[in-house]
Design a protein that fits this description.
Number of helices: 7
CATH superfamily of the largest domain: Jelly Rolls
CATH topology of the largest domain: Jelly Rolls
CATH class of the largest domain: Mainly Beta
Strand content: 15-25%
Strand order of the largest sheet: 2-6-4-5
Distance between the termini: 42 Å
Length: 209
């Protein structure tokens, strides 16, 4: 397994060798569940390509989007579950076709003590994800749903690299913790305001958004 050059700006040489020897190169298709609620977490993924969607799921099966994990990043929640060997409290789903390195939990403590760049990577990941969760809480507490929807669409476009979003109104409602009827009404208003174009299970973001 050969690591991308970008990793050489993040990790020290000894750690790069350990990642290459201990990590497992893994691929997954769009929609594949990498980690599910209640599953014992045995690896933490370091993303190489694509986007991983991290969400919470309630007792009725409704999902609430927490954050995305992109190339050269990892999931803070898997760090805590790995090191404490707790069942997963999140669901990690491939937003598109992805490639990642699966780091086994058996090396986590050793690397934290041995490699300063790994400790920095873990702490930076936890801090960044914590800030993203704070932003999500702020949106829920202080922003109207139409403002949250615009933010959601922009983030989805940013993470997919496309202004065309391939999601149904029902899927968006589930990720935002709302109802399909409400989301459909808000999207229709955005279309009337010439900020989006609506198609069947697709939304085209316009520059005015």
């Amino acid at each position: 397994m050969s690591l991308p050059d970008s990793f050489r700006h993040i990790f020290e040489p000894g750690l790069l060798e350990s990642i290459e020897s201990k990590g497992k190169f893994t691929v997954a298709r769009e929609g594949d569940i990498i980690i599910d609620i209640g599953q014992t977490v045995r690896i933490t993924p370091i993303m190489l390509k694509g986007t991983l969607k991290i969400s919470r799921v309630d007792s009725e099966g409704k999902e609430l989007l927490l954050y995305y994990v992109n190339a050269n990043e990892s999931c803070a929640m898997t760090f805590t579950c790995c090191m404490q060997q707790f069942p997963s409290e999140i669901k990690a789903t491939a937003e598109n076709d992805i490639e990642y390195i699966a780091i086994p939990i058996s090396v986590m403590d050793e690397w934290l003590a041995k490699y300063p760049t790994w400790k920095s990577f873990v702490m930076r990941t936890i801090r960044n994800r914590f800030n993203e969760l704070l932003n999500a809480i702020d949106q829920l507490a202080f922003q109207k749903l139409d403002e949250r929807l615009v933010h959601y669409l922009k983030e989805k476009s940013k993470n997919t690299g496309s202004s065309l979003i391939n999601l149904s109104h029902e899927q968006i409602a589930n990720e935002m913790g709302s109802s399909r009827e409400v989301i459909s009404r808000l999207l229709k208003k955005l279309e009337i305001d010439k900020k989006v174009l609506l198609y069947r299970n697709q939304i085209k973001l316009l520059k005015e958004l």
